[in-house]
């Protein structure tokens, strides 16, 4: 009776299999394929990208995780058919045996193929598929000290797949602030004394790789004998970690598991020790730099004093340019022009005098300004003096000189005034004043030349030159002695040469 029932079952099974088969064929080879899981049939066309026109073979067949593949070879006509499985040849049709059975699917992510060979004519039919894999998730997480309780629980509660929710109550832990849908902490920060964890994963393949990033230098080989994929880590140092699991060799990142957590530093590294160490370091560092700081402070005070003295000298020089004698001569010239009814010339004289006074007063609060501003001031001054004396003037600036270079305010005026007063004032239209500006390396060179009678005696009676020499003395304090001024008779013709050298920053 049992044999009869079993035979009927096989017949029904064969009939059901035949009804659900997708056939592929080549020559005398014709094989039926069926994919099912938990008594659910999957249409082959829903699992692949299409079929090869000649053989009807599925293209890129991916079967669901946990499903099985069945084959039927009843339609094969030849009696010399070999099946190649795992590089081993198995005859399935000699003499008249058929392959009517099911091949269980392999581990997720793996690739399998069955090859049928008609040895008489050499036809080959290869059926290949890949097992799909769902996104890997962390099934559970326990403190390390819970390990013995967990093992006991496993022996008492044997199950095929892991429960849908965490078996450990993380909601009752005070330092856990957020849980995911399984009840597992999200980005937790564990105290240093709770520095051991026990990870549980539901499923892994034999070629899976596991790595605790921050602890392991490289991925670890998974032990397939490990039940439910259990991983215990104890006495972890403080730091940031990521529990990373690659479910199978070459698995894409989107289905791999990454679980991040932090082990906090102990209290003696977070507060007193750090503060104490910082204080000691600060004291030592302060001691090392104390002498240097005092030296820098003295140097800064000295530079401030030099700067103050320089400012005083500049103020004296500016006041010297506006001395009563200069103003008296200017106003007297304007009066003479008015009395001669040369009103246009007088107005021009007044306008230029006003422009000069504005420029001088505008620069009285600054120690330095751009070379272009200094040359504009000198041009106005020369134009003003040319109303009284009929000399000519020329200012030449070399192409490599930047007019934005900084120079001391009113640097040139005392020397130009001296050239006018003692050099060309008596020559009329024959008098010539030239200003040549060039740059050599990082030094600005300014030559002031006139064609007057030259130096017959020391210029001790020139207040402007005395103040200019005083200011150059204090400029050298700032320029480390690199600034200089030289007055001497010209060697190429009559007159005086004033050579000024300034370092460029």
From TrEMBL:
Gene3D superfamilies: Histidine kinase-like ATPase, C-terminal domain, Immunoglobulins. The keyword Zinc-finger does not apply. The chain crosses the membrane at residues 273-293. The keyword GTP-binding does not apply. Keywords: Kinase, Membrane, Signal, Transferase, Transmembrane, Transmembrane helix. Residues 1-19 form the signal peptide. InterPro entries: Bact_2-comp_sensor_kinase, HATPase_C_sf, Ig-like_fold, Sig_transdc_His_kin_internal. Residues 313-390 form the Signal transduction histidine kinase internal region domain. It holds the Pfam family His_kinase. It comes from the Bacteria. GO terms for molecular function: kinase activity. This is Histidine kinase. It comes from Algoriphagus pacificus.
């Amino acid at each position: 009776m049992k044999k009869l029932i079993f035979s009927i079952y096989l017949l029904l099974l064969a009939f059901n299999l035949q009804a659900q088969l997708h056939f592929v064929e080549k020559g005398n080879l014709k094989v039926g394929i069926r994919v099912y899981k938990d008594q659910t049939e999957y249409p082959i066309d829903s699992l692949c990208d299409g079929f090869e026109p000649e053989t009807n073979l599925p293209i890129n067949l991916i079967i669901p995780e946990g499903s099985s593949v069945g084959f039927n070879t009843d339609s094969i006509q030849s009696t010399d058919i070999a099946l190649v499985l795992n590089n081993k040849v198995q005859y399935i049709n000699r003499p008249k045996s058929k392959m009517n059975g099911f091949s269980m699917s392999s581990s997720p992510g793996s690739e399998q193929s069955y090859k049928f060979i008609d040895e008489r004519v050499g036809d080959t039919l290869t059926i290949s598929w890949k097992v799909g894999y769902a996104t890997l998730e962390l099934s559970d997480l326990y403190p390390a000290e819970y390990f013995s309780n967990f093992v006991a629980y496993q022996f008492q509660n044997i199950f095929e797949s892991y429960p849908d929710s965490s078996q450990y109550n993380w909601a009752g832990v005070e330092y856990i602030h957020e849980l995911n849908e399984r009840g597992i902490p999200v980005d937790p920060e564990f105290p240093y004394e709770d520095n051991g964890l026990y990870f549980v994963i539901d499923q892994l393949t034999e070629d899976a790789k596991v790595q605790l990033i921050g602890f392991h230098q490289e991925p670890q080989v998974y032990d397939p004998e490990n039940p439910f994929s259990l991983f215990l880590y104890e006495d972890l140092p403080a730091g940031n970690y990521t529990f990373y699991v690659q479910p199978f060799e070459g698995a894409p990142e989107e289905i791999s598991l990454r679980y991040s957590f932090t082990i906090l530093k102990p209290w003696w590294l977070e507060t007193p020790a750090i503060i104490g160490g910082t204080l000691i370091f600060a004291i030592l560092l302060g001691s090392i730099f104390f002498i240097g700081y005092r030296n820098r402070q003295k140097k800064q005070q000295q530079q401030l004093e030099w700067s103050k003295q320089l400012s005083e000298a500049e103020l004296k020089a500016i006041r010297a340019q506006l001395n009563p004698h200069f103003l008296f001569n200017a106003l007297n010239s304007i009066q003479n022009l008015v009395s001669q009814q040369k009103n246009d010339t007088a107005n021009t004289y007044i306008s230029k005098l006003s422009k000069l006074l504005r420029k001088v007063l505008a620069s009285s609060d600054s120690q330095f300004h751009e070379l272009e501003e200094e040359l504009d001031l000198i041009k106005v001054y020369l134009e003003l003096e040319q109303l009284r004396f009929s000399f000519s003037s020329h200012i030449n600036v070399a192409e490599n000189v930047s007019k934005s270079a900084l120079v001391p305010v009113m640097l040139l005026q005392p020397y130009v005034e001296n050239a006018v007063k003692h050099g060309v004032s008596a020559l009329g239209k024959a008098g010539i004043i030239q200003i040549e500006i060039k740059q050599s390396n990082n030094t600005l060179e300014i030559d002031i030349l006139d064609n007057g009678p030259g130096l017959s005696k020391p210029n001790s009676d020139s207040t402007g030159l005395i103040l200019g020499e005083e200011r150059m003395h204090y400029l050298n304090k700032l320029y480390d002695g690199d600034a200089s001024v030289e007055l001497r008779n010209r060697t190429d013709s009559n007159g005086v040469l004033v050579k000024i050298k300034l370092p460029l920053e």
